[in-house]
Amino acid sequence: GESGGQAGDTGSISSGSAHLEVVSTSRPFTDLVVHQVLVKEGSINLGDGVNLTVAVDERKATARNHTATHLLHAALRRVLGEEVHQKGSNITAERLRFDFTFGRKVTPEELAQVEALVNEAIAAKVPITMEEMTVSEAKAQGAMGLFESKYGEVVRVYTMGPYSKEICGGPHANNTGDLVSFKII
Known about the structure:
By secondary structure, this protein is α+β, with helices and mostly antiparallel strands. It has helices spanning about 55-80, 110-125, 135-140; strands at about 10-15, 20-30, 30-40, 50-55, 85-90, 95-100, 130-135, 155-160, 165. The protein is built from three helices and nine strands; from the N terminus they run E-E-E-E-H-E-E-H-E-H-E-E.
């Protein structure tokens, strides 16, 4: 489901003669995913078994853009300094938007440096690894953590070589090279 600015999965739900198109998913609570659907055919009743199918290509594209937000955040902090803090994002299969605070206008030259650093990480084609650990272990390893009040005691930490190490609950690409290229518009 939609969480942390990332669009939720879409796809389909089917049961016997029923077919529903999943147009969005959300997470109003940590342990609850709500599916918004269009009924294409038939009906589903309480207790019916169903098959859920995720739109895989869209999910992979969203995961790549999610991965790019981590690389972008790290590059912004390298170029502008550690006073850069993420304040939000909007990530879909088509694009990403990254909101952050900084005390002045970012120059075109700085944006070009940030873009180059993200593309350097992509060109390096490093594997993206995930480890589960406690929040204190993640902090001790230098992982960035955002919106910490949402974390449980055990978190997932995604590492992208020397480029990014961040606590995150969302899906990611398997390798930075999967992103192909990055452009700030």
